[in-house]
């Protein structure tokens, strides 16, 4: 049942190319985006509220940058557990997008119901067919990741991300902001993702080796800007969830407003550096931490070899349009968390105190 892998998580990590490909194929036919959103007035949307928990909230964080860039619609990203108790300001021209693998997360479901009570259109991105959130939302888009067993999500997260990309492209097109040619370009870039994820997976032994050196780490920091910050949040959650190593994700520029005081000799700091407009800024934050004793790992696209002047260990990922590169940057972070958990002899698939689906608030 684990397909020859030692744990479901590793099996599911390797199922990501397929999860991404199947999800893309379900909504792109003959190079056209096919989504059933009849009745949704996309061109007049005033605001989009993404509402989710955990990793699905991290997907929402990544979507924020991509949606605002491609659709020019203001986006808010909300933790479902906060949104539902806040009496949020919503207008009838808004759209609430709930993202959930299980479709049963109590807070996400309550947030969806709240939006519906207020008469706001709701769209759910869900993996489990016929789940509560899927049944109750006005519109549903399914991720085709297949059943996910490991508590730590990987393939559902990746499938949610690509669904988010396609939705952003679609909204941008419907609003007249993206020409046909641009849409075709984005879709052809997206079609390269499954192969490129496979390529990143080929480097897993290097991460295994790196993890074997760091299994006694006490604190790990993940930093990045923009989409790289969203990916850092996910890398940090994966790590703490299954390896029980304390970690923090910071928007790189925020470090010096407090957390940098925690950096000491040997602290591991992971810089996600994929955005050409931003990575030099992140590198300068990494340099500041190195001078305070941090050991630096970087995740960067092939070709950014100057990063080796700064980082002690670099994992390279293939290039792709920068809106979508988070889907590649997250893979080494998943692998690192996995190998750290294994090297500590922990229960990778069922970490302590956690449930796959959080159906109580
Ligand atoms: O089923 P959902 O996507 O609604 O679950 C949300 C979170 O509970 C989930 O992403 C959790 O954070 C994962 N264990 C992260 O790996």
What Rg do the Cα atoms give? 20 Å
Q: Which descriptor suits the 3D outline?
A: globular
Could you report the average pLDDT, rounded to the nearest whole number? 96
Q: What class would the helix/strand composition place it in?
A: alpha/beta
Major sheet: arrangement of strands: 4-3-5-6-7
Strand-residue proportion: 15-25%
Number of strand segments = 12
> The biggest beta sheet, please?
5 strands, parallel
Low-confidence segments, given as residue ranges, are none
Distance between the termini: 31 Å
Order of helices and strands: HHEEEHEHEHEHEHHHHEHEEHEEH
Fraction of helical residues? 40-55%
Give the number of helices: 13
Q: What compounds are bound to the protein?
A: 5-amino-5-deoxy-1-O-phosphono-D-mannitol
Subunit structure: Homodimer.
Active site: 356 (for fru-6p isomerization activity)
Protein name: Glutamine--fructose-6-phosphate aminotransferase [isomerizing]
Catalytic activity: D-fructose 6-phosphate + L-glutamine = D-glucosamine 6-phosphate + L-glutamate
Quick structural overview:
By secondary structure, this protein is an alpha/beta fold.
Describe what this molecule looks like in 3D.
With 361 residues, this protein is an alpha/beta fold. It has 13 helices and twelve strands. It has a five-stranded parallel beta sheet, sandwiched between helices. Helix 3 packs antiparallel against helix 11. It is globular. The model has no long low-confidence stretch (mean pLDDT 96). 5-amino-5-deoxy-1-O-phosphono-D-mannitol binds next to helix 3 and helix 11.
């Amino acid at each position: 049942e684990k397909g020859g892998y030692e744990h479901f998580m590793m099996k599911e990590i390797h199922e990501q190319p397929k999860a991404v490909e199947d999800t893309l194929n379900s909504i792109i036919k003959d190079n056209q985006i096919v989504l059933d959103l009849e009745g949704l007035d996309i061109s007049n949307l005033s605001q989009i509220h993404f509402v989710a928990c955990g990793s699905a909230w991290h997907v929402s964080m990544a979507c924020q940058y991509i949606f605002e860039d491609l659709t020019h619609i203001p986006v808010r990203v909300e933790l479902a557990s906060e949104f539902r108790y806040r009496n949020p300001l919503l207008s009838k021209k808004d759209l609430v997008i709930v993202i959930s693998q299980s479709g049963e997360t109590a807070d996400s479901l309550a947030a969806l119901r709240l939006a519906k009570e207020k008469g706001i259109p709701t769209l759910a991105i869900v993996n489990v067919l016929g789940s509560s959130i899927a049944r109750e939302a006005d519109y549903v888009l399914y991720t085709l990741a297949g059943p996910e067993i490991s508590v730590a999500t990987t393939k559902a997260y990746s499938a949610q991300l690509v669904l988010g990309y396609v939705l952003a492209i679609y909204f941008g097109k419907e609003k007249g902001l993206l020409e046909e040619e641009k849409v075709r370009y984005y879709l052809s870039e997206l079609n390269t993702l499954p192969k490129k994820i496979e390529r990143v997976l080929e480097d897993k032994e290097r991460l295994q080796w790196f993890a074997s050196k760091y299994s006694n780490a006490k604190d790990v920091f993940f930093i990045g800007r923009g989409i790289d910050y969203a990916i850092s949040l996910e890398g940090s959650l994966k790590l703490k969830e299954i390896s029980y190593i304390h970690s923090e994700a910071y928007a790189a520029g925020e470090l010096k407003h407090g957390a940098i005081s925690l950096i000491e000799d040997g602290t591991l700091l992971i810089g996600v550096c994929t955005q050409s407009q931003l990575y030099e800024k992140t590198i300068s934050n990494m340099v500041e931490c190195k001078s305070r004793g941090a050991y630096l790992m970087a995740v960067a696209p092939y070709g950014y070899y100057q990063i080796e002047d700064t980082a002690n260990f670099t994992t390279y990922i293939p290039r792709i349009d920068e809106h979508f590169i988070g889907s590649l940057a997250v893979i080494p972070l998943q692998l690192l968390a996995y190998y750290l958990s294994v090297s500590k002899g922990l229960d990778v698939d069922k970490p302590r105190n956690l449930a796959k689906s959080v159906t109580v608030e």
